[in-house]
Amino acid sequence: MSNPETVTQVSVRIDGDEVVVAAGATVLDACSAHGVDTPTICYAENLTPVNACRVCVVEVDGNRTLVPSCSRPAEDGMVISTDSERVRHSRRMVLEFLGSTTDLSQAPEINAWSDEYGADATRYVEGGETISEPVKVQDDLYIRDYDKCVLCYKCVDACGEEAQFTFAIAMSGRGMGNRISTEFDVTLPDSACVYCGNCIGVCPTNALQFKTEFDLRAAGEWRQDEQTVTRTVCSYCGVGCNLELHVQDNRIVKVTSPADHEVTHGHLCVKGRFGWQYV
Prior knowledge:
Ubiquitin-like (UB roll), 3 domains, 20% helix
């Protein structure tokens, strides 16, 4: 008896339309292939999904609960609804909960989704309740603002086995005291941090941001709409990491890396991320 033919593609039905994707693709991949713009917060294309935010949930026929599209594999014959009232209600509640406890003033993508789903955080608590502690400015490279943190876990993954393998940060505390922290809450210079800045690269809310950006914002001089972004190759070694130079007033203000680059996958070392002052 011959072995069944290896499945290379699966067919799913999304909002009434048939979509064919490669075997192993996620529901989110299928939605993207179909042109459905799905909200995500804890998802990043260069990290393994952790299912933390649940804002990407969709409805799948036969499933009792909504499923996270970022991690659920697409299965042949799946019938998926991405915009049902149940899905919209769930996404709206998640966005409202985040908006009622977090400073999202520098998270334009999340705010756009909140507008899209009619999220009204004020119906839970006027003004919101945040950690309300001073911004941690402990060096000249980057800052930590816990009032903006949505606990998406992406920075922990980027610091750990997904990219850097430094494990300088982890989840700490409970309730409103739950936060990302160094071991024993020591300062960054005293921690195991190697300042690769990969945590900044994946942060969706600017809870982690370049000190240069922080200073410009404080001075009212941060003008993102006027900035240019130029891709180049890092000059420090022969690996060939690609850099995206964000330039304002003819001065580099921060450096990112494209997530789809085959060398970096969005990740850099301390030299590529912060070593541009010589320019």
